[in-house]
Amino acid sequence: MAKQDWITRIKAEFTTIAIVMIPIAIGINQAGRLIHEALGLPVWLDTIGTIFTAMLCGPWVAGVGGFFTNVVTAIAYGRATSVFFGLVQLGIGFLAGFFAWKGWWKKWWKVPLCGIALAATAALISAPIVVTVRGGVSGQGIDLVFAFFLATGQNFWTAIFASRFLIEILDKGIISTYIPWAAVKRLPEKYARMFKYTKKVR
Amino acid sequence: MPRALLISYIDKDSFFHKLNPVTKLVITISVIILIFITKSFIHNLIIFIFIIPFAYYSKLTKQVFMPIKYLFIIFVILFVIQGLFYPFRETVLIQLPYGFAIWTEGLIYASMISSRLLVMLVYGYLFVLTTHPGDLVSALRKLRLPYIFGYIVLATLQIIPRVQSQMATIIEAQKSRGLETKGSIVKRLRAYTPLLGPLFMGSVQNAIERATALEARAFSAKCEKTSYRETIIMKKDKVIMVLTIICLIIFGVTSWLL
User: Fold this and answer.
1) Where are the domains of chain A?
2) Min Cα–Cα distance to chain B from A129, Å
3) B218-231 as b/e, with b when 16 or more CB fall inside 10 Å?
4) Residue ranges per domain, chain B?
């Protein structure tokens, strides 16, 4: 009986508006790349839509949305490897939604703390995936940091985790959490009441 | 301007195009499982060579090999980093000045990973080239997967180009209002809010409109829904699926024994 309750509760999270939010979140994740190119800072914004959805619709919807970001990338561009990295997005979406459920986004000073937790999660999940799938290499500037850590004689796993964490912290610690949070705070009331989790964030 | 629907599907009349998407998915997943089982990159290269008849029969001989271009940079970095700094290094292949060296184990590891990436990307690309997303969704719905997943995949393929053009408009509009996208890091960090704020507000509005439109078409009604593109699992699909799994087992076992 208790198990049944769980499933119905999760199903209740997937209201029509929440389901519609998922493709839009994926679109925002992809649009983040345009801003990244325009500003040229090491801030990828590739999870910003997932985090935004997490604050509006909760952990389950955001987790599914995050995972499907990479599934759709795989279908659209034919990059099978990106499906594995969907687990990172799933973890981030779920955790950000969990923070929303707990009401941890309410205070402004807790936002960067949650961001750091998200960055650490992203590094923890992506490190083993990047090692098994791509041998620790991602073809971007992060590889230089990784090589630097390896060259200074760090342990392999320390090197890969530290390089990932360093590069995630600017993205998830500040921009990708603060801006969605500010947007949810300023959402007009007539829109905000259509989403379940806005009460717990504002 | 971005294309209306972002898919790499190429319409051709071939045996491979006519297979059920589920069959092709089974083949692709088996190949991906197989390359994680194999122990040496030579096995992976043999699996890679098998793509040639597949590509030939799908009439897409050239396009299938497109992802190799994208992989090239990754291969270079992979070989440099792993060749120089592989953590489980033992034997020196070439001694370099300043105490650096190229290690045999590192190069073996790098070739293993790169052959894996090569196989995964090429087979994944073949699947995408020969399968229309609509067919894939309808085939997966036949397997009783929740239709939410199908909606997500198809709606996203339409929304991504739209959001991207919206984003390009926002960037242009804010630049014309004097937004600085060049300069010091602080200046550039400040630019994020005026760029992302309108995107979020616009997307929430868009979501509410879409939800209303979907509800008007009985999206959440609990009845059997029909789909525009129909797929059937035929006898040849079943035969090929069984053959693929037998091949997976045979290849997997032999690659362990050899």
Assistant:
1) 18-201
2) 12
3) ebeeeeeeeeeeeb
4) 15-132+233-257, 144-216
Q: Which residues pair with B145 in a beta bridge?
A: none
Inspect the interface and report whether the beta carbons of B74 and A139 lie closer than 8 Å.
Answer: yes
Of B112, B157, B207, the CB nearest to A24: B207
pLDDT tens profile A19-33: 999 999 999 988 887
Q: DSSP readout, A79-93?
A: -TTHHHHHHHHHHHH
Please judge whether B77 and A80 are an interchain contact, meaning their C-beta atoms are less than 8 angstroms apart: no
Q: Which of A38, A135, A139 sits opposite B73 (nearest CB)?
A: A139
Which residue shows structure tokens 């320390």?
A: A158
Dihedral sign for Cα atoms in the order B161, B127, B134, A10: negative
Closest A-chain CA to B133: A75
Residue of chain A minimizing CA distance to B123: A80
What does the alpha-carbon distance between residue B46 and residue B61 come to, in Å, rounded to a whole number?
18
B155 — phi, psi (to 5°)? -65, -40
Asked which of B164-178, B183-197, B208-222 is least confident by mean pLDDT, the reply is B183-197
CATH code of domain A18-201: 1.10.1760
C-beta atoms of B74 and A134 within 8 A:
yes
